[in-house]
Amino acid sequence: MADTDTEFGPKSFGPVLILRGMSRDAQGGGAGQLRIAALVGRPSGDAPPEVESDGTTVAPVRLAEGAGFAIYRYDLSLPATEDAWYRVGDERHRLNLAIGGDARIAFVSCNGQEEGDLGRDFEERNRMWRRLADEHDDAPFQLLLEGGDQIYADEVTKAHPLSENWPEDYPDLDDAQATKVRDALREAFFVRYATLYAAGDFSRLAARVPALPIWDDHDICDGWGSLPEPALDSRLGRTLFDVARETYLLFQFALRPEEAGEVFPDATGTSLSWSVALPGVTILGPDLRSERRLDRVMGDTGWRVFRDMVRKIETERVILVSSVPLLGPRLSLLERTMRFTGWMKDYEDDLRDQWQSYAHRAEWQDMLREMVGLIEGRGIDVTVISGEIHLATRGEMTTARGPMHQLVASGISHPAPTEAYPLALGSLARLGEAPLKGHKIRLKPLPGKRSIYTAERNFLVLTRREGAWSAEWELEESGRTAPLPL
Fold it and tell me: Is the pTM for the entire model greater than 0.70?
């Protein structure tokens, strides 16, 4: 497991497990095999650890080197049973991968804070990670879904003088400068990922539960895609994005950039949307960042890839992981008011990030139509899960087959906001919204709560028992909510 040196940062990290997919026979009802990548980081001069899976030695794939680390991937094929296992060095890890019947899935988002994240007391910072890992010890999870902002990379731009004032200042870099900035940013991303991956409360869960992550703005920088286009399209902006993308693929998917086509349907690499089919449920992870601009959420490529993934769904349920909440309050009213009064400049990226922005209303309606088409047109149940807002809440949209549920859990380690924030959002939420005629949206309190938004750190647990799904929130101060049938 991870080994941390308090003076110099982590000396090693991993294994961190990432789900690749499942063999077809499993989706037909058999136990089958799960394809899982195990990511390991070791000092550059050390030999890679020996890994054994199901009695067979697994060869390491050297992916990259940086910040004194060599990064390796081990490709595992493990049975979808309660007693799967693999070994790294002398440490044997037992996994419950029986996801074909009753199953438990955890969901987290917003693992950090905008400033000073690596300087926090990690005992306090990772309290909810510890609670999640303890729960796994008692009742194992088969899968961990990560809804974006797995790291808060906002401060990596301070790694070089030419990028330290981003995004307000973006000097025109020549080739030599761009190389130096890229190297500094890459080193800073490596250190940030490695430090978070080495933390004990995270690492003991990550070694035993495979993850499926999507990315959001803080995996790149605060507000990426909703910032002014001259900054995004400058050479500094593209350098920042390219390094963030490289390290996202490396640390969150155990891939080199040129290997992305093995996991992501878009062979061009423009969109990093993914789809994973498991017994009875397909999990969709649309990429809402790579093509984002002030006037769009996804570009032509992203929409083509997403619609193709939707068309191919064959399971009776879909879990849509939307990094920003798909059902939300009428933020367009607030956005237009702030724009009219001149307050918009300081908050434009935050409001433009949302599906509910007036600039994204047509796309929002398109996404809602896709979900309604699954529910009403094909008889597929849809549950949307989201993070991003640093609060817990839920919502419903009416359909002819009953409500489509949205579950928001955010954040796992981001500090809870002051009460003024959830109260303001709650006031907007009471206005209601119906972007599609006949499909009213209502935001609602968590089970047992009176306010629509709960300002506590939290994570979400999805449970399938005898074919019926339910959701529970684990709240830092309030504890567990009652199950919500889905």
Answer: yes
Residue pair 192/153 in contact by the 8 Å Cβ criterion: yes
DSSP letter string over 172-235?
---HHHHHHHHHHHHHHHHHHHHHHHH-HHHHHHHTTS-EEE---GGGTSTTTTSS-HHHHHSH
Angle, vertex CA 260, rays to CA 255 and CA 264, nearest 5: 125
Question: For the purposes of burial, counting CB atoms within 10 Å of the CB of 379, is it exposed (0-12), middle (13-18) or buried (19 or more)?
Answer: exposed
Nearby residues of 412 by Cβ (< 8 Å), 6 or more positions away:
108, 109, 110, 111, 128, 129, 132, 457, 458, 459
**Residues near 228 by Cβ (< 8 Å), separated by ≥ 6?**
167, 294
Long-range contacts made by residues 445-450, C-beta under 8 angstroms, separation at least 24?
A: 445/393, 445/394, 446/392, 446/393, 446/394, 446/473, 446/475, 446/481, 446/484, 447/481, 447/482, 447/483, 447/484, 448/481, 448/482, 449/478, 449/481
Q: Distance between alpha carbon 244 and the CA centroid of its chain, in Å?
A: 14
- 459-469 pLDDT, tens digit per residue, is 999 999 999 99
